[in-house]
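We were asked to recover a plausible sequence for a given structure. The inputs and outputs are reproduced exactly as logged, with field labels preserved.

PROBLEM: sequence recovery
POSITIONS: 381
GIVEN STRUCTURE:
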């Protein structure tokens, strides 16, 4: 039976572990660096969905406000992969525990894939069941406009056979009407957004599906999974466990323009939530890192995604920044984390199923086959 409530301390511990192995930094770390600094002025006058209508959007908007206040921005070379939760050490757990994963500053499909993999791993750990990933694409503005027109035609033609609720909603918002029709089971002949994707959106969607397949991430296409209105774009997905949705995510690039008008950037985010216990949370003790895994090239990136779970389950004290393309930036972050060893993988190593272990103090290098690499790393740890 699926768990209905997760202890806050367990929830926070899992969040830290997922962040470490998949390359997400806690927002609290950025906040601590800005503590005491003057906050930027917010500029959020645009109209957004009400919490009752789209609670995920409200959660993401709150996250972006915090990023704006501490001037937390990605750069061209260094996208930000951030996790954030309302479960805080030293305080009682919230009745509803929320964990967010965000990738800011990259339009590459690897960002979507890493967010999905992180949520899948978290769900599997917390519920001890295999989660299902349902995924679709709503496309860009061009796509959404075409899809909206098709939905409008659909509801006009079927106004007499669909529930009255759908017809009423369609007068103001065809996306809400579509959500209602789907919830009521009226999906026959309902247009699918993927039938109207622009060339650019189709390419993005295909790139993501290829990444999921190449990293052996199970998923199913969900042609009637949609997102509404002016917040979301392109990919949308949900994570289900035991037939119940536990997480939902989407691209939200247009939304960043309301908070960073002079430096808007691509973005994807997902929100996981579950009931939690109200006990005071102890501070999480994080073991000292021994290895920083750096990689360059698609082949190495795909392998690193698959290896993340093996390293995590074996408790190898390792971290990596999967979504960062630049080797220079990865090495810079490894330097700051002060790991004694670097695990290096390029295209050549990925094709040969190996990695290079470098002792940062002596610069001595050892080539390690991926078969048995966990045992070898533990011997160095």
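RECOVERED SEQUENCE:
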């Amino acid at each position: 039976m699926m768990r209905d409530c997760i202890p806050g301390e367990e929830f926070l511990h899992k969040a830290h572990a997922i962040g470490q192995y998949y390359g997400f930094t806690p927002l609290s770390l950025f906040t601590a660096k800005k503590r005491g600094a003057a906050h930027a002025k917010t500029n959020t006058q645009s109209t957004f969905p009400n919490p009752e209508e789209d609670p995920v959007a409200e959660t993401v908007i709150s996250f972006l406000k915090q990023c704006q206040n501490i001037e937390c921005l990605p750069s061209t070379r260094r996208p930000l992969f951030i996790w954030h939760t309302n479960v805080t050490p030293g305080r009682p757990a919230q009745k509803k525990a929320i964990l967010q994963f965000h990738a800011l500053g990259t339009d590459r499909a690897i960002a979507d894939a890493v967010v999905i993999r992180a949520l899948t791993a978290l769900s599997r750990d917390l519920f001890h069941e295999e989660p299902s990933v349902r995924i679709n694409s709503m496309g860009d503005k061009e796509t959404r406009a075409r899809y909206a027109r098709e939905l409008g035609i659909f509801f006009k033609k079927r106004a007499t056979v669909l529930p009255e609720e759908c017809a009423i909603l369609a007068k103001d918002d065809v996306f809400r009407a579509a959500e209602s029709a789907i919830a009521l089971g009226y999906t026959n002949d309902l247009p699918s957004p993927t039938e109207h994707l622009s060339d650019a959106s189709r390419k993005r969607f295909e790139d993501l599906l290829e990444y999921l397949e190449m990293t052996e991430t199970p998923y199913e296409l969900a042609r009637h999974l949609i997102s509404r209105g002016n917040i979301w774009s392109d990919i949308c997905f949900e994570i289900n466990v035991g037939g119940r949705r536990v997480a939902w995510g989407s691209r939200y690039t247009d939304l960043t323009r309301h908070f960073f008008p002079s430096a808007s950037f691509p973005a994807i985010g997902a929100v996981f939530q579950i009931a939690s216990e109200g006990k005071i949370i102890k501070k999480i003790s994080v073991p000292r890192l021994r290895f920083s895994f750096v990689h360059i090239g698609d082949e190495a990136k795909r392998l690193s995604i698959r290896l993340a779970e093996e390293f995590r389950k074996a408790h190898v004290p390792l971290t990596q920044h999967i979504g960062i393309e630049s080797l220079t930036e990865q090495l810079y972050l490894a330097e700051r984390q002060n790991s004694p060893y670097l695990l290096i993988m390029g295209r050549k190593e990925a094709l040969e199923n190996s990695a290079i272990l470098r002792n940062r103090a002596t610069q001595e290098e050892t080539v390690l086959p991926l078969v048995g690499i966990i045992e070898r790393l533990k011997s160095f740890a």
